[in-house]
Each structure stands twice: as C-alpha cells, then as structure tokens.
Amino acid sequence: MMGITNENGSINYSVDVLANIVGISTMECYGVVGMASKNASDGFWELIRGENLSKGVKINSKDNNINIELYIIVEYGTKISVIANNIIQKIKYNLENYTGLKVSSITVNVQGVRV
C-alpha cells in the first residue's frame, strides 16, 4: 500500500490500482501494441491486452517515491525512443495528477516488435 497523509486524514492506494493506471496510460500512447508478461512455463514474453494490463508493470515504493518498471511490445516501423518518452511523460502526469503521489523513476523495457 502506498498513500498520502494530510491534516484531514490519509489515502492509501493498492499496488494493483497504481499498476492499472500505468497500464491504461501506456496503452493510450501511439505505437504501443500491448503490455508484455513473461510466461513462467516457457520463458517467452506474451502480449497482454484488456483486463490484465497490470501484469506488465512492476511498482516499488520507497518513502512515498514510486519506481515503475514496465514491459511493452511496440508497433513495427515506429521510433522506439519517441514512444518510450511519450509513455514516461504520460504515466508521470497521470499518476501524479490522479493520486498525488510522486513518481521518481520510470523504466520502459521493450520486449518485442509486432507488425
């Protein structure tokens, strides 16, 4: 649980809620085909869409600073550095605006390219 406290009380967010915000924000970015999750049985990365977007997101918190690591699959023919920068900007903006928590780092791992 991560949260903020002020004179009126406190608000706590589960990691799943934060991961869903990150997943949805990522999927809104141009050039992203989907999130990626490692299949434990065969070690391959699989494409995730829809309800399970949070499976491609890892969130760690230290002193109310959030560190995010996400795994994505991008569209062939797009500039990966531009896509990654757009994702970072969008996640940071959305998460800080929706929750009031501070994002200290975002790492985008591109696991594949799809046509």
Automatic annotation (TrEMBL):
It holds the Pfam family Asp23. InterPro entries: Asp23. Belongs to the asp23 family. This is Alkaline shock protein.
